[in-house]
Structures are given as C-alpha cells and as structure tokens.
Amino acid sequence: MNIIINNSSMTPIYEQIVSQMKEKIMTGQLKPDTMLPSVRTLSKDLCISALTVKKAYDAMEQEGYIVTVHGKGSFVANVNPNLAMEEKQKEVEKLFEQGIRKAKECGMSAEDTKELFQVVLSDFE
C-alpha cells in the first residue's frame, strides 16, 4: 500500500491515511472487494502505531468506504457514486471557505469576493 505520511503536517496521521485511501478508492486504484493490509501490517509498513491505523480504518468503515469482516480482514466497499460525488463537493466547499476567509482577511467585501469569483469562473467557461 503506497501511503505517504508527512510527520511535519498539521493533519493528524490517521486523517492522512483516510484521505489517501479514499482517493485511491474514488479513482479506482483500489477496486471493490480488494483486501486491505491488516492493521498490524500497515502500521509496520508505515512505522506508526496500530491504533492510528485502526482509527483510520474505523473512520473509513463508518463513512462506507471499507467493510471489515471479523476474522477475515478489511475490504474496499462498493462505493455509491453519490457518496463519491458528495465527498468531492465537500472538498470544493472547504476550498471555497478557505478562499472566502482569505478574502475577508484581505479586507474584501462580500460583493468584491463575488465579483472576483465570477471573473475566475468565467476563465473556465
């Protein structure tokens, strides 16, 4: 499993694992029913605590990205396309929020921010 952990990042390690694995699932690099490395195996490969990997697997299972079968392991779930689209929309929303925050920090009004958004958006049409 090719996961890169950035120890200097402000993002918790389990979230780094979750985001990278979700990306692999959404892009089809990890296909449905693919068996994931065990918690112990992945923790050894990444040189991190097994509890951190377990937390990441639990989060992905709760979100519907993986299924854990007791005694057999964890597997990639058949991800609902609507779930995948919702996840991408959340990412875009987060980026919009960051941009709006930055605009406010720079002293831009809501109207100026909207106008700037329209200008940038028109470049993509």
In brief, what are we looking at here?
The protein is mostly helical. It has 5 helices and 2 strands, in the order H-H-H-E-E-H-H.
Descriptive terms for the model:
58% helix; mainly alpha; elongated; two-stranded antiparallel ribbon; 125 residues; Arc Repressor Mutant, subunit A
Describe what you observe in this structure.
The protein is mainly α and 125 residues long. The chain has two domains: 13-76, Orthogonal Bundle (Arc Repressor Mutant, subunit A), CATH 1.10.10; 81-122. It has helices at 13-26, 39-46, 50-62, 81-105, 110-122; strands spanning 66-69, 73-76. It has a two-stranded antiparallel sheet. A hairpin with a 3-residue loop joins strand 1 and strand 2 (73-76). The radius of gyration is 19 Å and the shape is elongated. The model has no long low-confidence stretch (mean pLDDT 92).
CATH homologous superfamily grouping of the largest domain: Winged helix-like DNA-binding domain superfamily/Winged helix DNA-binding domain
Report the principal-axis shape: elongated
Radius of gyration: 19 Å
Question: Residue-averaged pLDDT, rounded?
Answer: 92
Q: Give the tally of β-strands.
A: 2
The number of domains: 2
Q: Which sheet architecture does the biggest sheet show?
A: 2 strands, antiparallel
- Total DSSP helices: 5
Question: Numbering strands along the chain, what is their spatial order in the largest sheet?
Answer: 1-2
Secondary-structure element pattern, one letter each:
HHHEEHH
Q: In the CATH classification, which architecture of the largest domain applies?
A: Orthogonal Bundle
How much strand content do the residues show? 5-15%
How far do the termini sit from each other? 38 Å
Structural class by secondary-structure content: mainly alpha
**Class of the largest domain in CATH?**
Mainly Alpha
Q: What is the CATH topology of the largest domain? A: Arc Repressor Mutant, subunit A
